[in-house]
Amino acid sequence: MTTALYGPDGFFTRAAEGPADHFRTSVHASPLFAGALLRLIRDVDAALGHPATLDVVDVGAGRGELLAALHALLDTDPAPGLARRVRFTGVEVAARPAGLPADISWQRYVPEHLTGMLLATEWLDNVPLDVAEVDAEGRARRVLVDPATGQERLGPDVDPADRFWLSRWWPAARPGDRIEIGWPRDVAWADAVAALRRGCALAVDYGHLRSARPALGTLTGYRQGRQVPPRPDGSTDVTAHVAVDSAAAAAGTAYRIISQRAALRALGVGGGRPPLELARTDPAAYLRALSSAGAAGELIDPAGLGAHWWLLHEVGIELRGTMLAMSELASESSTQRRTNVITGAPAEGMA
C-alpha cells in the first residue's frame, strides 16, 4: 500500500493527475466547507489571543485546493488583520502544484512548533496499513495481495504489535472477519498533533468506532470517480476508513469526536431552502440561495459526506463558548448529541 500510494510512480506522487481527478471530497464539493473551516480558524485565533503569526497547516494537501480556497476567502476579507498574520503551509509528498499563491509554502513534512490550526481532511484514510483476516482457527493472519492482479491470499499471523492493537481496538473478531490494523494511523496522527505547540488539530475522515467496527472491513479503491477493487499498482486510490477513537486516544491530548453533519451545522452550514417569497422579490438571489442550499445538503448528508467524523484536539487553548462547543449543538436532540459528539481525556481512550 505504501509503494502503491507514495512510491516513485504512486497514486499521490504522479505529476499528471491530482486526487480530485479520482474522488470527490468535502473540499471539492463546495466552498462552503472552506468557509466553515475559516470560521473555526477565527475561533482558534481568538482563543490564542490573536498571535503575530497564525499557522494554518494542511496535512495531505492534495493539490492545495483547501489552502487556495482559504487564501481566496481571506483575500476578500473586509477585515484584513487575519490575512496579514496567517502563514499557510501545505504538507504533501507530491510536488508543489502550479498556480498556488506564492505565500503558501509547500513541504514534505509537518513543520514543528506550530501555533494555530493543523488540518487533515481525508488524509488518515490514505495512511498505509495492513489488513488481516481471521482464519477458521480464529487466528488473525495478514492478507497478502499481488499488485499486478489484485489477487489475495492469507499470509502469516499478525505480529505482537498488531495483536496488542487488536486486543484494545478491534476485539472479538470471528472467522472470516477482516480487520484493518490502524496503529500506523495512530502514530501518524500523534506525530502531527505533537507538532502543535498551541492551537487546534482537526482530522476529517470517514471512520468508525469500536462499538461498530465493520466485520468485512472497508478497504476499497477509487479511480476516475468510480469505486473499484483496491489494486495496489499505483493507478488507484487505495483507502480504508479510520478507527477514529483509536487515533483520538493516541494523540495524548483531550479530544472531541463530532459528526460532520453536526459540526457544519454548528458552523452555519444548514442546508435549509430559501423562502419562496425571495423568488418573487429577488429571483437571482433566490437561485443563488437555492444552489447554496443544495451544496450544503451534500456536505451534511448523513448518507454521504455528512457521515465523516471530525476529530478535534485543543492544545493549550479552550474553544468553549465558540461554535463547536457542545452548547452550540443544542439544536440536535439528546439522542443525536450522544451519537454526534464524543469527548475524551488523553489517558482514557475509548473504553
What attributes does this structure have?
single chain, 351 residues, alpha/beta, Rossmann fold, 2 domains, eight-stranded mixed sheet, four-stranded antiparallel sheet, 17 strands, 31% helix, disordered C terminus
Description:
By secondary structure, this protein is of the alpha/beta class. The chain has 2 domains: 2-127 and 182-269 and 295-344, Rossmann fold (3-Layer(aba) Sandwich); 130-169, no CATH class. The chain is built from 12 helices and 17 strands. The protein has helices spanning 2-6, 26-29, 31-47, 65-75, 81-85, 160-169, 183-194, 244-250, 260-266, 276-281, 283-300, 334-340, and strands at 54-59, 86-91, 104-107, 114-121, 130-134, 140-145, 152-157, 178-181, 196-205, 207-208, 220-223, 226-228, 237-239, 242-243, 255-259, 309-315, 341-344. It has an 8-stranded mixed β-sheet with strand order 3-2-1-4-9-16-15-17, sandwiched between helices. A 4-stranded antiparallel β-sheet has the order 7-6-5-8, with helices on one face. Strand 11 (220-223) and strand 12 (226-228) form a beta hairpin. Helix 3 (31-47) packs across helix 4 and helix 7 packs across helix 8. The protein is globular, with a radius of gyration of 21 Å. It starts with a helix and ends in a 7-residue tail after the last strand.
